[in-house]
Amino acid sequence: MNSALIPNLDLRQENVAFPLRMENNSNPPAVPGGHTHSLVILDNRELDRQCLAQCMAAQKADLQILAFGTIEEWKQKRDEYPPLSAILLNVGGKKIDEPAVSEQIRKLSSEFVSTPLIVLADSDDFGQIVRALEYGAKGFIPASVSVSVCMELIALSVAGGIFVPASALFAMRHLLDSSTSTARPLAGIFTDRQVEVVEALRRGKANKIIAYELNLRESTVKVHVRNIMKKVKATNRTEVVFKLNDLFLSSGSAANSLC
């Protein structure tokens, strides 16, 4: 393409690397040094990932932004770039529970254990957010946020935090408020006493408080919690809450479909 035909187009790429094979098989332009870490954007849509990378690079000059179609492409040139800080997987309008997407999240999160995987998606559906975290993502960013906010949320994940949209919290609150109507469908999964413990767990109550309110020994509560974790295949209390809320969401949807 002759750049002279587009006089307002700035072709400089000072803060962003596009390690993609060009049509004439030439190497990508060199990127100035000074970057201590890098962020990899994964998106099989070339135009989308390049545009996003350009915008992010303008916001974060000390972070080298890399755009690849697959993680395998990055691995081939990983030695050319600074240490990896995070991976941003842009799934666009795809559903998290689509087999290809869920498998990609699981594979990346298990391979890059010490590197946070953040999902960027068009949707902020609560069920999709829960599944992304369940599959191993350390954050879920809706495409409705600004680039600057997106960069701050990525920094939060790098620091060890987990971000979910406010809409997810509102959805969780709605589930808590409607717990009496959705608890009954779960009776086939948990015992009556476990359902009571489930309700307390979803409200973030400690074992001592649960024991006091249910008139149980704390050791008995711990046994119930362990059994609940086994039933939902969770490894910690945080994961229990996410999976329980997912179960309540599914139960509520099933109930609505029968109405």
From TrEMBL:
Q: Where is the signal peptide?
A: none
Record has Cytoplasm as a keyword:
no
Tell me the ranges covered by the Response regulatory domain, including all copies: 38-158
- A single Gene Ontology molecular function, please? DNA binding
Domain (HTH luxR-type) ranges: 183-248
**Top-rank lineage group of the source organism:** Bacteria
Question: What UniProt keywords apply to this chain's record, in alphabetical order?
Answer: DNA-binding
Give me any GO biological process, just one: regulation of DNA-templated transcription
PANTHER family, sorted: HTH-TYPE TRANSCRIPTIONAL REGULATOR YHJB-RELATED (PTHR45566:SF1)
What's the name of the protein?
A: Response regulator transcription factor
Its source organism is Rhizobium sophorae
